[in-house]
Hints:
With 410 residues, the protein is an all-alpha fold. Helices cover 65% and strands 1% of the residues. It starts with 18 loop residues before the first helix and ends in a 5-residue tail after the last helix.
Amino acid sequence: MLYFFGQELILDDFRKESAADVAWLITATCLVFLMTPGLSFFYGGMVSKKNILSTMLQSFMALGLISLIWVFVGFSLSFGDSFFGLIGNPFQHFLFNNITLSHSKLSLEIPLLLFALFQMKFAIIAPAITTGSFTERINFNGFLLFMSLFCLLIYCPLAHWTWHPDGFLNKWGVLDFAGGAVVHISAGFASLAGAIYLGKRKFKHLKSYNTSYVLLGTGMLWFGWFGFNSGSALGANEDAILAFVTTNTASAICMISWLVIEGIKGHKIKVIDACIGAVVGLVIITPAAGFVNISQSMFMGAIGAVICNLFLDFFKRFDIDDSLDVFACHGMGGIVGLLLTGIFAKDVGLFYGEITTFKNHIYALIIISIFTFFGSLLIYKITALMIPIRVSNEIEEKGLDHSIHGETLN
């Protein structure tokens, strides 16, 4: 975990890697991989039948496309030697060159190659999250270009700022245990930019096709999230155990709280609401998972449910067609989690009488929000200049599955 704080280490400080650490990180990498197919089911179950395959494929394609981008240059941009704390050397690990099974200050007591593969799964799911905001109306080829540019121009710089020892946010002491800011806030604001840029759907045919898909996707996400958060301890250690229990506890109480809030509103207990509550809890605890205790994680999940649920109702008053409420859940969830991390982080949070970390988290939030929103908006514009990014009214009415992919769900 020391690399999150930007501490300089030398090779002599490393002990021989533990087989248990390596085994756990391989397992955690597989768990995070599972989250992206889980996301495809989560999103796919919430759209109309005529768009379910297209929606699921958008998430699934990230596994292939971002994996290649990460091997070519993404890892190097994120974790290569720093240029002024802003970006990594793109040539240092090009095509995974100079990535051996030896130690490095980045991966601490696990092989650098394993660290690169673990981080790859984070890079994969970040752009996949954005697909829920513009579902049922985006051109598939346009989305592929946007996803590629988002990875290179938004995600990789954020990862470098936050997680590289020389990244400027890291040097400020900004704490993001497993990607609340790097993954969820960035995806949230990119989703908001996409919903605004692509505009509202012409045909309001969004209707959940299969809520059992949503339930399955939520289960896969929750299961994979243990690798997402506990794996970020980078070893089979106490931090991993703490992250495991805080992750589960925050999600559990957020799900229950979300249902209680919906009940107070006079609504019935719905599968969709339970699943959204669980995922929001997972998002909120992500930046803090290894930095807070169990009771604090419970508070974060409960108060986060209230904030995000009320914000969702408020956000719907605006004329923005964020199809699956990505910004309200991932964007706002990440914001709440990052700020509460600055409050409750052990020894350095506002709760412990220290103001610096909380203050820098506010600065980081402002910088990340502006960078990801306007940067993503620019990427959408660039994509539209090269490839039509929105489908025609005719294709939208017929559905993307048949019109673009020539397939239909039987």
